[in-house]
Every structure is written in structure tokens, then in C-alpha cells.
Amino acid sequence: MRLIGDNLSAERGGDPIFAQISFTVESGQALVITGPNGSGKSTLLRVIAGLLPAMEGQMRLEGAGDNWPTPAAACHYVGHLNAMKTALSVNENLQFWQHFMGEPALGIAEALDEVELGHVGHLPFGYLSTGQKRRAALARLLTSHRPVWLLDEPTAGLDKASETRLAALMKRHLDTSGIILAATHLPLGIKAEELRMGDTWRG
Ligand SMILES: Nc1ncnc2c1ncn2[C@@H]1O[C@H](COP(=O)(O)OP(=O)(O)OP(=O)(O)O)[C@@H](O)[C@H]1O
């Protein structure tokens, strides 16, 4: 499988954010998107996820067969917001996402164990600490299968042990032919190519 971004450009609120961004990421590979604040890292992830239109260029997914008809369909997107309801329990939030995303993979309890949150599934999401909230959001990656993980600052709020745990989960995804694209200011602890944003910024 190969995820290709071909000559992408994007606008927000009518303003150009980036142009002429191209990349190819193969199964088993990670691409880390770096660049200064405002250079368009999050915007690029949202274009790849199909949440924003590309003004020019196109996304393609090659070799995915019929399972994943579009690049967006093949993606898990974990933005810098956690996308979990504060009043619902962690279990209820993850159940919602598993139902919404389909392609069930790990059970809720198993996924929470993987991020060492097995003891808080019954708590309202809003009760969790900042790092626990991030780990619970990342557990969504494990409850439904998607070959492509799009991660926006995935380590924000994580302590060292949790960063190491996430690196192990990402490595496992890559070792099972997954693809990861991550916007980050920090090293993620996995082998990755780098796409540096900012040089083609027109703003
Ligand atoms: N809805 C919007 N309308 C107009 N401009 C927007 C909108 N959302 C984002 N922007 C602008 O788009 C630019 C790129 O933002 P983006 O969040 O993609 O950058 P980033 O590289 O991820 O930054 P950071 O490192 O701070 O997370 C910024 O200048 C931002 O102000």
C-alpha cells in the first residue's frame, strides 16, 4: 500500500497556507511533518483525512484493494483535540467511536490496557488528567482497524513512560504494514522520514 500526496495546496479562510506539497509513504513507513507554528502541519493532516478540500493536487492510495476506496476512508485521524465527550465515560466514548468507525479490532478493555488506562474506563472522560485524556483518545487507534494513522501532536501532555508506550504501539502498527503521518515538534521515538513545512508557505 502506498499513500501519495501529489502537489497539494490548501487555503483556510481564503488565505493560502501551503502549496506544492508532495510525499509518498509506503506500508511500514512513517512520515513526520515538522515546521514552525502556523506552517500548515495540522491543515495538511486535515486535507489528508478528507476534512478539508485540497485547492490543488490530489491524494491517492495505491494497492489498498476494495477495502479502502479513498485515502480518507483508510485513515484514523487523531487531531490535537481529543474528540471525546466529557460527560460520557471513557468506555462509552470508545464504544461510540468503535461503532462509528467500524472494522473492530481490540475490545475496549484491551485497548485501554494497551495505553495503561484499564482502571479508568468507568470514569467520565472529563475526570481524567491531561495525559490520561490523550492516552484514551489514542486508544481509538486500537479499537478499529485503519491502515493509515494521522496523528496531530500525539505526544502532547504525555509523560516519558507514555511516550515510550506510544512509540511501541506505533512501531507495532508499522511492523504490521501500517502507515503513520504525524505532525510533531518532538521526536516520536520511531524511524521516520521528515516532511518540513514552511518553505513553500505563501502567506
Ligand atoms: N478556520 C481558519 N480560518 C482561517 N485561518 C485558519 C483557520 N484555521 C487555521 N488557520 C490558519 O492556518 C494556518 C496554519 O494552521 P495550522 O494549524 O495548520 O498550523 P500548524 O503548522 O499545525 O501550527 P502549530 O505548530 O501551531 O500547531 C495558521 O496561520 C492558522 O492561523
UniProtKB/TrEMBL annotation:
Gene Ontology MF term list: ATP binding
Limits of the ABC transporter domain: 3-200
Coiled coil start-end: none
Gene3D superfamilies: P-loop containing nucleotide triphosphate hydrolases
SMART domains: AAA
Entries under NCBIfam families matching the protein: ccmA (TIGR01189)
Protein's name in the database: Heme ABC exporter ATP-binding protein CcmA
Organism: Aquamicrobium segne
